[in-house]
Amino acid sequence: MNFAAVVISDQQDFIEIIARGRARGADAVILGCTEIGLLIGPEHTQLSLFDSAKLHAKAAADFADGKPPAGAVFS
Q1: What is the CATH classification number for the domain harbouring 25?
Q2: How many Cβ atoms are within 10 Å of 66's Cβ, its own excluded?
Q3: pLDDT over 90, % of the chain
Q4: What is the mean pLDDT of residues 26-42?
Q5: Is the CB of residue 14 less than 8 Å from the CB of residue 40?
Q6: pTM of the full predicted structure?
Q7: Which one, of 59, 54, 50, lies nearest residue 31 by Cα?
Q8: In whole angstroms, what is the distance from residue 26 CA to residue 68 CA?
Q9: Of the four listed, 17, 30, 40, 61, which is most buried by Cβ atoms within 10 Å?
Q10: Could you give the number of structural domains in the chain?
């Protein structure tokens, strides 16, 4: 990947990987590397997307706001 811009061939590779996952029964995609959200968005697939960068940012904001982490159990 080129950090300065979206590389179309990389984007197409991810779109094809997602399509293969969908064909195998996937109903969602975790964009587990924080940069993948720069390549792939809702306009590229009908599957639900979980962008780790956005999820981390929301968790940090919630933490700063004093909200407990979603789904976390602490003793």
Answers
A1: 3.40.50.1860
A2: 6
A3: 65
A4: 94
A5: yes
A6: 0.75
A7: 50
A8: 30
A9: 40
A10: 1
